[in-house]
Amino acid sequence: MVEVREFRQSDWPIVWAIIHDVVSAADTFPYDPAMSERQARETWLFSPPGLTVVAVDADRVVGTAALGPNRPGPGSHISTGSFMVAAESRNRGVGRALGEYALAWARREGYAAMQFNAVVETNTAAIRLYERLGFVTLCTVPGAFEHPSRGRVGLNLMLCDLSSAPVQSISATTE
Amino acid sequence: MVEVREFRQSDWPIVWAIIHDVVSAADTFPYDPAMSERQARETWLFSPPGLTVVAVDADRVVGTAALGPNRPGPGSHISTGSFMVAAESRNRGVGRALGEYALAWARREGYAAMQFNAVVETNTAAIRLYERLGFVTLCTVPGAFEHPSRGRVGLNLMLCDLSSAPVQSISATTE
Question: Is B158:A141 a contact under the CB 8 Å cutoff?
């Protein structure tokens, strides 16, 4: 059973290992593949109004999410989130648990929507999950992501409107 | 005649005055309206591969642009730009000179496109200018910007493909 809880400093070694793996693979995140540990801390560890969480399965950290306002000032009523799951724990509901937690958090914090700015269009597992959670793709920026094996592929802008009723829960592991 | 040149440290007082005015008005940029001078420096002054420029009219700085890659790593072949014009110098071709300079810079640096992530949809003067420069709106995120008088309005994602021939120059002040 996957549980999601707030990040603690003692989680950092495993969270950094997950980030390092995902970022070096360079096939799902528009981050610098050579990102240093210090840059990863600055990119991923948020203090309020942002929040960093981890997904825990049998006391092991298997995924993480970084949540917060998508833009400052007049754009700060829209939230955003980034999600990473350890390679050996994929396809086991970890991303789903993190996504449901993120949307529940955003509703609770009063955000009007959650926006993903750059979902790689070949990351179909993530896109399918986000669609099940209630996200829609507003547009795709063609060729905006240099994929290591597929060449230039698109980046989707995805949005989940939080002003309407939530999509019926597809899991009982959160909230 | 408006000329565009690289930013120099001695330009900062007037550039900061322009940024402060634009950001406090809070009607065109999703920046913190209370942005400090230090934050403004970090947000606006880019070193390579980015570039900050100013528009100069009769030796007076009347506008500025901040240019660079839109995202790191696998997204770094797409450029972005932000433009600000002093209130008393609007509707005089300053934005056009900055926009043409930006696109010429992006072509020269080998970017595949220039992307604007968040153009306020009520900023019709800017949108018309960008369209004349060759940008198209790929989508509008509804209600993503809290406008001080109009309430929640949309943010446009705009893109100019640089792989095709340039739009015929509409001004002789750049290049």
Answer: no
